[in-house]
């Protein structure tokens, strides 16, 4: 697209300003994590940069344990969602059974129910199962995911029916077709969904707060909150250092995922 | 090798109108059988029923004298080539070809042997490591064919395999498929909407229209003696010229579309029932050029297509367009009255109501081969 230079400059200036506005809190947190407490509280520009905040964050809080917990929980949820969603989507696209479409719409309708509404029943169930303070209690309630099934179903629908028919004639069963054809062909969507699932569970706050009572299984988001309230006087530098560490996996995944996503997209369909 | 037998095969969706009506058909061993018809005629549905991808509503389907109505596709021992090739986009050519063999648990060495044999035959040796998207349309088509060949199934089904290719490639693939079928002795069922493909490839052709068989026969039979008006206008290019006609027995004249007045012979008149309302058809090559002296009729040219080796001229005849095809180059202006010769022996006579053939054209255009 070509546009006059003046217009171009205006656009870019506006874009840069809004980008700065949106990014400012993150940037501030990043800078503050390297500043001494004195500088932060006086609100001056940093006089010296130090890694003390990071050292302190790791030594005074079980931050490492939190991080490990978060990784385990997020990866488990991501895998569980991918497996269940893709299997369900496969059934909704490639298996023919009575009432399939109606069932699908009912399934999709559960997206309308906000998570908060199901928190209490979910909590009762995991309490009765004795899953409080366990990875199972933190992850299993999130495995079934209407959105993921919907996303993958839309993607599976673009796979030509002839591929399934060709495999039927070759004598391939449903499960083998799912594994050897559908999964590789739908790679892009799987990655997208995986990244989405990972980030959502990484940033989850309410559920881990309810389902955990000790540091052994607590996730990093809860840990961050604890940093704030345990001390009389908030050590903002330490909190920011913790926050920066928490953001890193998110950013990393976004960058990696993006690259993979582009690769997947260019692969394209065959026609 | 196997034959396919169908008895009263019927198909309907959700108990609605029948898509296919009581199809009775036997396809012989090693035969190249073409199912042809306009879109929506049910030809693909029939093919998919043979493959087992579509349920049979009623009737009996036998392959090799075994009832296969409820046999899953994989147990029918057949291969299929799809219109869009149905290649697995994430697999290389080699994997695509061998995919079916792996599913059938054929030994590794046997797989290798068949792969080399097939790819040599199809000229795919250099492309084994490529992905389908890196191939041209013709090459993809060849991979799809190779996949069918490598399975060594005695029955091969093809669903409009050439319709995504350009005209030149289509012509060469026609020959290739035909040769392949003969060489391997396959029983081939080939679906197409293109009557040229049907005419050039088929040992026998079945013309389908609205779910019913119109005619089954070898290509020349269909061309010379079309069973009804539908077959007459469907088979042949350009299509047969058709016009309503009235027979005047007293004067021995046949009047076509109120314009052409043709001399009717005794045998022609005796072949036509008394009260029949008739439609006549004449092939483009039977409307021959005449000098002004021996012309039987003059017709007004409305369009002239000079192709170099032959010329197609369209004439207007009382709202109908009739076309003729004459060899060589003709310099005819649009609007010119062109002298032509029409003989009643070249006319095919149809019953207007039922569309059925009453009398076929008596003369056929034989090549110059000494008999």
From TrEMBL, chain B:
InterPro entries: AAA+_ATPase, ABC_transporter-like_ATP-bd, ABC_transporter-like_CS, ABC_transpr_MalK-like, ABC_transpr_MalK/UgpC-like, Mo/tungstate-bd_C_term_dom, NA-bd_OB-fold, P-loop_NTPase. It comes from Salinicoccus cyprini. The keyword Transmembrane does not apply. Residues 4-235 form the ABC transporter domain. Pfam families: ABC_tran. One of its GO terms (molecular function) is ATP binding. CDD domains: ABC_MalK_N. NCBIfam families: PRK11650.1. One of its GO terms (biological process) is carbohydrate transport. It comes from the Bacteria. GO terms for cellular component: ATP-binding cassette (ABC) transporter complex, substrate-binding subunit-containing. Keywords: ATP-binding, Cell membrane, Membrane, Nucleotide-binding, Translocase, Transport. This is ABC transporter ATP-binding protein.
């Amino acid at each position: 697209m070509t546009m006059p230079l003046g217009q171009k400059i205006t656009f870019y200036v506006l874009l840069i300003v809004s980008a700065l506005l949106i990014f400012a809190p993150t940037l501030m947190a990043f800078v503050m994590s390297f500043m001494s407490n004195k500088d932060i509280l006086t609100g001056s520009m940093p006089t010296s940069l130090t890694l003390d905040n990071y050292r302190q964050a790791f030594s005074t809080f079980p931050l490492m344990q939190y991080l490990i917990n978060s990784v385990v929980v997020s990866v488990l949820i991501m895998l569980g969602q991918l497996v269940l969603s893709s299997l369900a989507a496969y059934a909704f696209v490639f298996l023919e059974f009575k009432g399939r479409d109606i069932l699908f719409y009912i399934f999709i309708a559960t997206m309308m129910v906000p998570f908060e509404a199901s928190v209490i029943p979910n909590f009762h169930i995991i309490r009765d199962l004795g899953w409080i303070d366990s990875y199972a209690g933190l992850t299993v309630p999130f495995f079934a995911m209407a959105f993921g099934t919907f996303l993958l179903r839309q993607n599976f629908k673009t796979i030509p029916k002839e591929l399934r028919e060709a495999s039927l004639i070759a004598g391939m069963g449903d499960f083998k077709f799912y594994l050897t054809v559908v999964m590789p062909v739908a790679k892009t969507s799987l990655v997208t969904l995986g990244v989405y699932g990972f980030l959502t569970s990484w940033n989850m706050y309410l559920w881990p707060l309810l389902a955990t009572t000790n540091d052994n299984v607590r996730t990093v988001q809860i840990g961050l909150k604890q940093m704030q309230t345990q001390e009389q006087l908030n050590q903002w530098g330490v909190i920011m250092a913790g926050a920066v560490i928490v953001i890193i996996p998110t950013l990393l995944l976004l960058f990696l995922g993006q690259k993979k996503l582009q690769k997947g997209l260019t692969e394209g369909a065959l026609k | 090798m196997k034959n396919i037998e169908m008895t009263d095969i019927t198909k309907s969706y959700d108990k609605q109108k029948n898509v296919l009506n009581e199809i009775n058909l036997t396809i012989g061993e090693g035969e190249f059988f073409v199912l042809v018809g306009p879109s929506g005629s049910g030809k693909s549905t029939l093919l998919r029923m043979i493959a087992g991808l579509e349920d049979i509503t009623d009737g009996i389907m036998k392959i090799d004298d075994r009832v296969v109505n409820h046999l899953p596709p994989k147990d029918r021992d057949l291969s299929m080539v799809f219109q869009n090739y149905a290649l697995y986009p994430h697999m290389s050519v080699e994997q695509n070809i061998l995919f079916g063999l792996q599913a059938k648990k054929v030994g590794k060495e046997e797989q290798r042997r068949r792969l080399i044999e097939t790819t040599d035959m199809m000229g795919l040796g250099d492309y084994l490591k490529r992905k389908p998207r890196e191939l041209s349309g013709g090459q993809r088509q060849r991979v799809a064919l190779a996949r069918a060949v490598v399975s060594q199934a005695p029955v091969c089904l093809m669903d409009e395999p050439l319709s995504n290719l350009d005209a030149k490639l289509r012509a060469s693939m026609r020959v290739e498929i035909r040769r392949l079928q003969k060489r391997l002795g396959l029983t081939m069922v080939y679906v197409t909407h293109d009557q040229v493909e049907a005419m050039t490839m088929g040992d026998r052709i079945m013309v389908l229209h609205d779910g019913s068989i119109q005619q089954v026969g070898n290509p020349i039979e269909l061309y010379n003696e079309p069973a009804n008006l539908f077959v007459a206008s469907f088979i042949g290019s350009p299509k047969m010229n058709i016009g309503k006609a009235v027979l005047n027995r007293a004067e021995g004249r046949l009047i076509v579309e109120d314009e052409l007045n043709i001399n009717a012979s005794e045998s022609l008149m005796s072949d036509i029932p008394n009260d029949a309302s008739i439609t006549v058809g004449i092939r483009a090559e039977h409307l021959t050029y005449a000098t002004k002296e021996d012309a039987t009729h003059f017709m007004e040219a409305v369009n002239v297509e000079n192709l170099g080796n032959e010329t197609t001229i369209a004439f207007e005849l009382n709202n109908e367009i009739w076309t003729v095809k004459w060899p060589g180059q003709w310099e005819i202006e649009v609007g010119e009255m062109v002298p032509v010769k029409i003989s009643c022996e070249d006319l095919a006579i149809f019953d207007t109501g039922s569309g059925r053939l009453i009398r076929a054209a008596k003369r056929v255009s034989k090549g110059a081969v000494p008999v």
